[in-house]
Amino acid sequence: MQAGKSQRSVLALVITCALILGFGIPLIPLVGVDSAEGTEVSAASDVATVSAENSLQNGSFEQPDVYQYRETSDVPYWKSTTTSGNIEIGSVFKNGNGDNDSLHMRTGEKVAAAEGSQFGKPATSNGNDQYAELNSNQASSLYQVVNTVPESKYDWGLYHRGRQGKDAMALVVGPKQNVAPMKTSATSNDQLQQIVTWVSGQQDRDFGLDMVHFSQTGTSRKITVYTTKFASGGRFDTTGVSSPFSWSKDSRHTERWELWIIVSDCDEWYGHGEFNGDEDPDASYIVPEGQNETLFGFVAVSTSTGDITSGNLLDAVQFRQYYRMDFQTPPSGSGTYSTDVETPVAFDSAASKSDYALVGSDVTVSAKPVDASHHFLGAYVGDTFVDADQWTANADGSYSLTRTLTANLSVRLMFSANTVVYNVNGGDPYDSDNPETGHEIYIKRGSSYTNKTAATKRNDDGWRFTDWKYDDDHILGVNHKITYGSKTNDLSISQNDQTVVSGIPAEKDITLTA
Fold it and tell me: Are 494 and 500 in contact (CB under 8 A)?
């Protein structure tokens, strides 16, 4: 009985893999229609317009609408490195007689395979009707170029499926090149494939996946590679280098690529990245500074049969964008931040915070003075100062402000009554717990402090204290005054009714050293 069960399982597996695909591929030009706008879109669009939930367009390959397996170059937003430029789109049909026990294809009514079919899975990963095949009539790469925001983060997810067994593909992300990736023949490799081939050959490194036989399903660790720039004819610029590939950046290997190797069997759609069922911290890409256009590439690596003309099914590709957030505060206050309903995260002068939140999230920042001698002035949100009057005053003495995240966000809190430290420790660190090292006073906004108490008598060793030093450039006598401007929101130091230094930022503590 056990043996019979095993045989039936194997038979079902083979049937599943075989019935999804394996049909002739007519070549017909198609035009895609943007379902959201109802307007015609061109597959020649080079840079995709992004949305909050998915920075890639047409990630489920539902455009163009096809009724049987098709090879076409008119797939909106996507480009292929096949020599013809064509992309294979697969579609699944109901067989017309109400029998959903097989994934039969026929020309006619198009619906997704039933959840109750004998294989227990819809034919596409997300209940839609279409998917792409990376190994079309040749091994190739699919890619999109997307407008990206430097320092933002993209978390990716996709569904992958082998055709007749375990197939391997790669996700490769990096800077858009002046020369597009290309193949010069059906059997040659484009630049993205060459990157993956070089990585696969580095057997002395552990990538967390079998990179030789691709015997296990799953996703490799994030792999970072540097290359020279792309050149024409499917090549790299190799001027002055022995290899276009390197594990480290130098003056010639300037292009940073991050990639993941992905292996899936043919019995079902396998989720990877955000779709693998567990949070994967490696499934993210942070856009480098200055990189405004990013290439997202999907590369055929190997097939279970070794046939480069069939394999590696791809569906439901998603890249979700997260903006960077930075929070800072001076010692005179502290703050928290939270996104939507998440638990607030604290930050203070000893531990500023950087984080990411999904585009469109509501971010709430709170600020609270360190004690009653200080009060909250507001904050620089980006380059704009938002006065405390525009924040919500809370019963516990804190202030809060909520913003919808539409760009990278930086928040720098500002508090009044900054500390003025008189350090008699000769420049060594002042210790607030040790009075012998000095003392500190607080000045409120709109007030001043006049120092007249510094000791001037001759010490036993013959030395006499004569002055204070501020910022290595200014010498102050025993009697001087520090003023906190009520309107200018800055500090100034004067002596004998003459201004010595002015325009000291209010958030900056003043330290005077003996």
Answer: yes
* Gap between the Cα atoms of 475 and 472, Å rounded: 8
pTM: 0.69
Q: Give the residue from 128, 112, 130, 147 showing the smallest Cα distance to 75.
A: 130
Return the domain boundaries, the chain. Answer: 14-323, 329-414, 419-513
Instruction: Specify burial of residue 466 (Cβ count, 10 A radius: 0-12, 13-18, 19+).
Output: exposed
DSSP code, position 509: P
At the topology level, CATH places domain 14-323 in: Jelly Rolls (2.60.120)
Which H helix or E strand runs over 507?
A: none
Where are the alpha helices (H) located in 319-452, listed in sequence order?
Answer: none
The amino acid occupying position 182 is M
> What whole-number distance in Å separates Cα of residue 491 and Cα of residue 507?
9
Q: In tens digits, what is the pLDDT along the chain, a chain of 514 residues? A: 333 333 333 333 333 343 333 332 322 222 222 223 222 333 233 444 444 455 788 888 888 877 555 666 778 899 999 998 888 887 764 333 333 322 333 222 332 332 322 233 334 555 566 888 898 788 899 999 999 999 999 999 999 999 889 999 999 999 999 999 999 999 999 999 999 999 999 988 999 888 888 888 999 999 999 999 999 999 999 999 999 999 999 999 999 999 999 999 988 889 999 888 766 668 999 999 999 999 999 999 999 999 888 889 999 899 999 999 999 998 889 999 999 867 899 999 888 899 999 999 999 999 999 888 788 889 999 989 899 999 999 999 999 999 999 999 999 998 875 556 666 655 555 454 555 556 666 666 677 788 765 544 444 544 455 677 777 677 787 788 888 887 777 888 888 888 888 888 766 667 766 5
Cα–Cα distance between 18 and 4 in angstroms, integer? 21
Sheet of 362-369: strands edge to edge?
Answer: 345-347, 333-339, 362-369, 399-404, 392-393
